[in-house]
Amino acid sequence: MIDPSGRTVDYLRISVTDRCNERCLYCLPEHYHGWLPQAGHLSASEILRIVRVAAALGFRKFRLTGGEPLLRADLVEIARGMSAIPGVGVIGLSTNGTLLAGLARPLREAGVRTVNVSLDALDPGCYRRITGGRVADVLAGIDAALAAGFERVKLNCVLMRGRNEGELRPLVRFAAERGLPLRFIELMPLSRTDVLTEANFLPVGEVMRILGEEDRLIPQPGHREGHGPARYYRLERSGALVGFIGALTNLAFCEQCNKVRLTSDGRLRPCLGDHLETDLTPALRADDGDESLRGLFAATLAQKPAAHSFRENYQPRRVMTAIGG
């Protein structure tokens, strides 16, 4: 499918739940309790139906997200059902990793090919202050993912001034030792607007400067690790492959966008940084074939904006866990 900006859109990120077992500073406002009731989530059969429609329209890349997707009891069955749908090319998973140790192998056997794990710090105290969780559980999940034989395991670190600058070099060493790509991601005003204050916002350019003080960053033009917008560099001495996702400071960030998102309550969202959403649930539950769903996909994609609105005093209406990662 082609959007109004001429971009090929073939990537659907599917949130299977808005719930999470961590409370990251950049993701959930303090005291937030606006979770959907379980009945408000799409059922497994509804998710699979949407995937079948999307695959028939030319979507080839799919990612299971949340909230924390591993909290969903039928996630393995959903992945297995997706892998059996004609046209589905790659199924990926984005997770905080805390529950991955026990699920990595079943998910791999169900057809999940790639895993992205959030890792904002290695120091246990720093990690807990950012996420409320235990980094030891995440590290066990990463080890399990490597043992399970996923085609690719990536690490994601969200940058927060005053929180994890001291973790940058340890994270690079950790990634290099395991041969894992590491992506540094700028804060985005998805759940709260104060993340963009000077006290909180740490741009990728500054991180590149910090890392470059000890090692030379060699650009890797055209290098892709999956389907995302990261710009990659190889650190000369350590050999680490590091990607930078600068949604705020990279003015060309949206030029190659190839994705839309499906929220856990059935809204199709063509841009993370725009409020437009299309509710698919009436068409899903009308039991009148898939033509209506195909039409809603096409109509939504026809409204996909050329760029996000994060630089235009964007005011979040739904927290990140409700939108999907």
General description of the model:
The protein has helices at 44-56, 75-83, 104-110, 124-131, 135-148, 168-178, 204-212, 281-285, 291-301, 320-323, and strands at residues 11-15, 61-65, 90-95, 114-118, 152-158, 182-185, 217-219, 231-235, 241-245, 259-262, 267-269, 278-279. The protein is α/β, with parallel strands linked by helices and 325 residues long. The chain has one domain: Alpha-Beta Barrel (TIM Barrel), CATH 3.20.20.70. Strands 7-8-9-6-5-4-3-2-1-10-11-12 form a 12-stranded mixed beta sheet. The chain is globular and about 60 Å long. The protein starts with 10 loop residues before the first strand and ends with a helix.
Main sheet summary: 12 strands, mixed
Q: CATH superfamily, please?
A: Aldolase class I
**What proportion of the residues is helical, as a percent range?**
25-40%
Which structural category fits the helices and strands? Answer: alpha/beta
The overall pLDDT average reads: 93
Strand and helix map with partners:
Layout: E1 11-15, H1 44-56, E2 61-65, H2 75-83, E3 90-95, H3 104-110, E4 114-118, H4 124-131, H5 135-148, E5 152-158, H6 168-178, E6 182-185, H7 204-212, E7 217-219, E8 231-235, E9 241-245, E10 259-262, E11 267-269, E12 278-279, H8 281-285, H9 291-301, H10 320-323
Parallel strand pairs: 1-2, 1-10, 2-3, 3-4, 4-5, 5-6, 6-9
Antiparallel strand pairs: 7-8, 8-9, 10-11, 11-12
Helix pairs in contact: 1-2, 2-3
Short description:
The protein has helices at residues 44-56, 75-83, 104-110, 124-131, 135-148, 168-178, 204-212, 281-285, 291-301, 320-323; strands at 11-15, 61-65, 90-95, 114-118, 152-158, 182-185, 217-219, 231-235, 241-245, 259-262, 267-269, 278-279. It is α/β, with parallel strands linked by helices.
